[in-house]
Write a structure and sequence with these properties.
Elements (H helix, E strand, L loop, with lengths): L2 H13 L11 H15 L7 H6 L2 E4 L2 E10 L5 H5 L4 E2 L6 E7 L12 E6 L4 E2 L2 H6 L2 H6 L12 E7 L19 E6 L15 E3 L2 H7 L12 H10 L15 E6 L4 H18 L2 E6 L1 E2 L11 H11 L3 E5 L9 E15 L10 E9 L7 E7 L5 E4 L3 E2 L7 E7 L2 E10 L9 E7 L6 E21 L10 E2 L23 E8 L2 E2 L5 E2 L21 E6 L1 E4 L12 E5 L2 E8 L2 H18 L5 H10 L25 H10 L14 E2 L6 E4 L8 E6 L4 E5 L4 E3 L6 E9 L2 E9 L1
């Protein structure tokens, strides 16, 4: 750093020393930062390949940056940070994305205008008959509806990896025009970058998209995940039967750089695109993380989602794929001990395997202590670690214990009071490559409830699957598969989606399938809040494959288009069920674009389908099914009957005058008008009035603001007016 920048930095700190406190980081992030700073300082502040994979480090214009999420305070001034070389995203609510130069990492706890920060954690990804199963076919056909609904005039944003910009699935149904509005490849360095962001490459025309062909390779190589997901939500069918849910919606693609700060930038980019074009936006997230956040809806990512939800953005997220793994423990302590064997993922199955990461969360005011026991295959204790308490582990611990000729490595970070939810928490990571040894978790507390999750830890930071807790002799406990909802699916304002096997009619007329997917993560959230919210088909879902992928797949169909062959294949996961529901949200907004994001979620849940397989679901929901099976047809019917007060910028073919009005409103069109209009006050109360000769009598209304609501060509249209 130049002497000028050092001087500027200390001048800013001096000027603001009475207006802000030290920036808070939780123990996990604080300790991880100390480790990486120590290593980077010996490398002239340049990251090596392993560090680029492990941490949220991005190279932008030949300079390395470390990504964070920050919570801002009233003294926040982005220019103060920009002057220090920090790349500052646009704040949403009180949350902002930050990219800090590596040689500035030592200063982050003193950055002005920030209350707290989190390392931007790494992220991992998690049709045919399914369209009939969710009743989207009836919605498309308009059976018993004013017209068919296909997602027209709605934008679906997909944050993922592995997009084929040339795929016929992303053209209209005549295969003549691309429906991709824009794409942002955050990995590609050639530019141009989007306005307001100084990294990645943006494509904003069919010509540039076709020239690019696909997004760039990353740690998933040339993936196909994003192409498959987007095809489910919005694929046109490419002339075949594999049409997506909202097949006339428009698309925004972001290939993001595996950390949640980049996700926040992606959401802002998508929101600005939709806002500029006056369109409603649904964002699908077929990915999740357990290593990051608080898992109880209080994380900075959850706070950002709430802020965008307030602006009308609908978020849909896969609930996770750990439903068939007993990777969770819950212990109610009464001055006693918990012991459980930690199962390890196979070191030979993944070249990036490091070990297991035990994440523990307790209750406010009730601290707990964790440690390790090493036994031989017969259960004889060979060695134990000390206990480490959440209220007595102020700094990072990186150490080992020796059992004979074997070394078991472990490290610990803990908070007595986490800065976001005031709960005690601990992360205990353990490495053991000798399969003849058994590693047991031991935990003690005087009182309170503690939850534990056993997660695979990879050196590249994207491990996202659980491994079991199991018994190993008397006095040990087995895990369960409950409380398995990941970030950001645990957020209050996200529509969290479970997966089930598509139900369809066999040749003899009997119903086949329909059971919940064994892999679908089970709720509730560990604080007791019900999750998931809804379920959708997610087993063996047919959709599009990127023609540029180098990943293995089994082709079950193909189509030739513009000199290339495009394949279709079946994938399973909540990654597939999430875009089903994202497509349904787009159908709802197609019918009624005035609904708030929370109204859309409520409609999807209220109209969920129950049957003899789901059983009777209680009012609070099911930990496996949420409210039940998503029902696009019933959801659209209810949307047409629901009063919404959002104000999209759609240009209507009609307006009213005078406005303000004293007695009678006049319409600018006459012949195309329906016979009746609804007058809606700002409390959502409506009454129906006759339109006579293009006029509407409002003389009896009390002074104030109202909406006039019409149904034209099957869609809700409304305008605001003022009664004098």
């Amino acid at each position: 750093m130049s002497m000028k920048k050092y001087l500027l930095f200390f001048l800013i700190l001096s000027a603001l020393r009475f207006t802000y406190c030290q920036v808070k980081l939780d123990a996990l992030d604080r300790d991880d930062l100390k480790l990486i700073q120590s290593k980077l300082s010996k490398q002239n502040w340049e990251a090596n390949e392993a560090q680029l994979e492990r941490y949220p480090i991005t190279k932008i214009k030949q300079k390395f940056y470390f990504s964070f999420l920050g919570k801002i305070n009233q003294q926040f001034n982005p220019q103060n940070l920009s002057d220090l070389g920090v790349i500052v995203g646009k704040p949403i609510g009180s949350v902002v994305s930050l990219k800090v130069p590596l040689n500035q990492l030592a200063t982050i706890t003193s950055l002005p205008g920030l209350e707290s920060m989190q390392i931007a954690a790494k992220v991992e990804n998690l049709l045919d008959k399914a369209i009939i199963d969710i009743r989207a076919d009836s919605t498309h056909a308009g059976i018993g509806l004013p017209e068919g609904y296909t997602g027209k005039d709605v934008y679906i944003g997909v944050t993922d990896w592995g997009f084929d910009y040339t795929s016929p699935m992303f053209y209209d149904t005549t295969l003549s025009e691309s429906r991709i509005i824009a794409a942002w490849d955050q990995f590609k360095t050639s530019g141009p970058s989007p306005n307001g962001f100084n990294y990645g490459t943006e494509y904003t025309s069919p010509q540039t998209l076709l020239a690019a062909e696909s997004d760039t390779s990353n740690i998933y190589n040339y993936s196909s995940h994003g192409t498959h997901v987007a095809g489910i939500a919005a694929g046109s069918g490419a002339g075949l039967a594999y049409r997506g849910v909202a097949f006339e919606s428009k698309l925004l693609f972001v290939t993001f750089t595996f950390n949640v700060a980049s996700v926040l930038d992606a959401w802002e980019w998508m929101y600005q695109k939709a806002l500029a074009d006056g369109k409603r936006l649904v964002i699908n997230m077929s990915w999740g993380i357990y290593h990051f956040g608080t898992l109880d809806g209080t994380s900075l990512l959850s706070q950002a989602i709430t802020a965008y939800t307030d602006l009308g953005v609908i978020f849909v997220n896969s609930g996770g794929n750990n439903g068939n793994v007993n990777f969770h423990l819950k212990k109610t302590f009464s001055n006693d001990v918990l012991k459980s064997k930690i199962d390890f993922y196979d070191y030979n199955a993944n070249a990036n395997m490091w070990g297991q990461s035990i994440h523990s969360w307790g209750e406010v005011g009730n601290n707990f202590s964790n440690g390790l026991i090493v036994t031989n295959s017969a259960g004889l204790v060979l060695v134990e670690s000390p206990y480490y308490a959440t209220n007595n582990t102020p700094s990072y611990i990186d150490t080992f214990i020796v059992a004979g000729l074997d070394t078991v490595w472990y490290n610990i970070s803990a908070d007595a009071i986490h800065p976001l939810n005031n709960k005690p928490q601990m992360r205990l990571r353990v490495k053991n490559t000798n399969t003849s040894l058994k590693i047991l978790l031991k935990s003690i507390a005087d009182t309170g409830i503690v939850h534990y999750w056993n997660l695979t830890e990879l050196t590249n930071g994207v491990g996202n699957w659980g491994m079991p807790f199991s018994t190993s002799g008397s006095g040990t406990s087995a895990g369960n598969n409950l409380n398995g909802i990941s970030e950001p699916a645990c957020s209050d304002d996200v529509i969290t989606v479970a997966a089930y096997a598509t139900q369809y009619s066999a040749a003899n007329g009997s119903l086949v399938g329909g059971g919940i997917a064994s892999f679908s993560s089970i709720g509730p959230r560990y604080d007791g809040t019900m999750k998931p919210d809804i379920s959708a088909p997610g087993v063996a879902i047919m959709s599009s494959i990127s023609s540029f992928t180098n990943a293995a797949f089994t082709s079950l169909g193909s189509v030739d288009f513009n000199g290339r062959t495009y394949h279709f294949a079946r994938f399973s996961g909540t990654s597939m069920s999430s875009p089903m529901v994202a497509g349904v949200a787009a159908l709802i907004l197609d019918a009624n674009p005035y609904l708030s994001a929370r109204q859309v979620k409520e409609i999807i849940m209220e109209t969920a389908r129950q049957d003899n397989i789901t059983g009777i679901i209680p009012v609070e929901g099911s930990t496996r099914w949420g409210a039940g099976r998503v029902n696009a047809y019933a959801a659209v019917k209810l949307a047409l009957q629901t009063i919404g007060l959002e104000e999209p910028k759609n240009d209507l073919m009609w307006s009213v005058f005078p406005n303000p009005v004293a007695n009678e409103l006049h319409f600018t069109i006459v012949d195309e008008l329906p016979k009746q209009a609804e007058i809606v006050n700002l409390n959502g109360q409506a009454n129906l009035r006759a339109i006579i000769n293009g006029k509407l009598n409002v003389s009896d209304l009390s002074p104030g603001n109202y909406f006039i609501r019409l149904q034209i060509d099957g869609k809700i249209e409304q305008l605001q007016f003022t009664k004098q």
